[in-house]
Amino acid sequence: MKTTMVTDRIGERAKASEFVVFGGSVLRDGDPDHWAAVKAGHLARAAELARSL
Q1: CA 26 to CA 34: how far, in whole Å?
Q2: Do the beta carbons of residue 20 and residue 5 sit within 8 Å?
Q3: Which end of the chain is more exposed for a tag (fewer CB within 10 A), N or C?
Q4: How far apart are CA 20 and CA 6, in angstroms?
Q5: Nearest to 39 by CA among 53, 47, 2, 52
Q6: Cα-flanking dihedrals φ and ψ of residue 13, to 5°?
Q7: Distances in whole angstroms, Cα of residue 13 to Cα of each of 31, 32, 52
């Protein structure tokens, strides 16, 4: 996935690139509150990354 998205799609057009995978998004235990916390953490991390651009 990293090769496809970063190398093939962006390639030489970007001075720098970073590939971030947000893991733990599978609702394994069936607890909606846990899933909501995971999603909130992903959103906060995505916002943090966006602000750094």
Answers
A1: 11
A2: no
A3: C
A4: 11
A5: 47
A6: -75, -20
A7: 42, 41, 19
Nearest to 42 by CA among 23, 18, 17: 23
Which alpha helices (DSSP H) does 1-53 contain, by range? 2, 32-51
Query: Could you tell me the mean pLDDT of each successive run of 10 residues in the chain, 53 residues long?
Result: 73 79 75 86 95 88
Structure tokens at 39: 């999603």
Verdict on whether the full-model pTM lies above 0.90: no
* Long-range contacts of the stretch 19-25 (C-beta < 8 A, 24+): 20/45, 20/49, 22/46
- Cα–Cα distance for residue pair 19/46, rounded to 1 Å: 12
DSSP H/E element including 11:
none
